[in-house]
Amino acid sequence: MAEPQTPRVAVYIDFDNIVISRYNQMFGKAAFTRDRARTHEVVAGGTDEVSGRLQQAKVDVGAVIDYASSFGSIVVSRAYADWSQRVNAAYQKQLIDRAIDLTQMFTTTLAGKNGADIRLAVDVVEDLFRLPDVTHVVIVAGDSDYIALAQRARRLGRHVIGIGVAGATSRALMAACDEFSDYDDLPGIERWVAPPRVAAAPAAAAPAEAPSTDAAATDAAQAAPATKAKAGSRRAKSTSTDAVGKAEPSAAASAAPESGPKRKPTTIPEFSHPLEPIDSGLDEDVEEAPVDPAAAQKAATDLLVRALRLVHTRSNDEEWAFTSEVKNQMIRMDPAFKEKPLGFKSFSDFIASRSDVVEVNDKAAANTRRLRLKA
Description:
This protein has helices at residues 15-27, 31-34, 49-56, 61-69, 86-89, 92-97, 116-130, 147-155, 171-176, 202-209, 212-230, 234-259, 293-314, 323-333, 347-352, and strands at residues 8-14, 73-81, 101-104, 136-140, 159-164, 179-182, 321-322, 358-361, 370-373.
């Protein structure tokens, strides 16, 4: 395989995995299932708790793609999920803005499994043979099911990068990758810090002590059959067996109303939301408003800062970065970036106008000039 001039990157996102892991990281183990977040309907301006949590735990797809672009040009970007679910459909604008291919994976079991891991793995292996110029594979997931995939991709000569949520990523998967980054460590992501646990108030412990008399009576009642059993009476044993047999159905009957009727017998859910109410921020019948020059300048500055941070992350301890390297990274992140529409004859002029955020090493020659973020 001929060595390409520019590294080419393929990104594969197990979307359900990353969204659920982030939610559980912030709100506790199994919180996503407990809150029924998958099918929760978020109303515009809603103040309910689950809507607020979903907003807090929203994954920044752009930060993931920007980080992947620091390894080279992205030639494949694909996300796998059940896009008919409200929680995933809420990411419509982010996914469209980043031109990510969406692979629909309908839920096929009551446990919520959709086979995304198998489909993702099959697609990666197929792409590695179909696109021999792909040099880097980015797997956005934390499931141990992807260990074999990472190992196989490395065996086929690809550089494998993993991205997962802290606390929900298999250590074996980390070891199987050439590089692994926590989602919290990506540039532009604020690291999540779990709030300190609040000790229970003394008053809350009082009700727990009240049933002590009942508990003693229950213990005594349980001890009585045990004493009779020691006597060796077959009748006592048969009575005890009958009692257990009768007790089990009664317990099951009491639990039945809670779990039985509420579940639907279907294994494949219907589309859980209409397409029209989704706020995509787009309207085919309305022309886009003209870009505000001040907003365009600010967006360019933000892009420069993010690109510099990514280049610095990739260059280990190098404090200074070549201007050409920074510009290439900016174009990878935003292919529409050009300095001339912003009013600058060259990229050097653009950099000079951002002297409040970047520092340029003027002593070097023009073609080897470097820059860094100001402290």
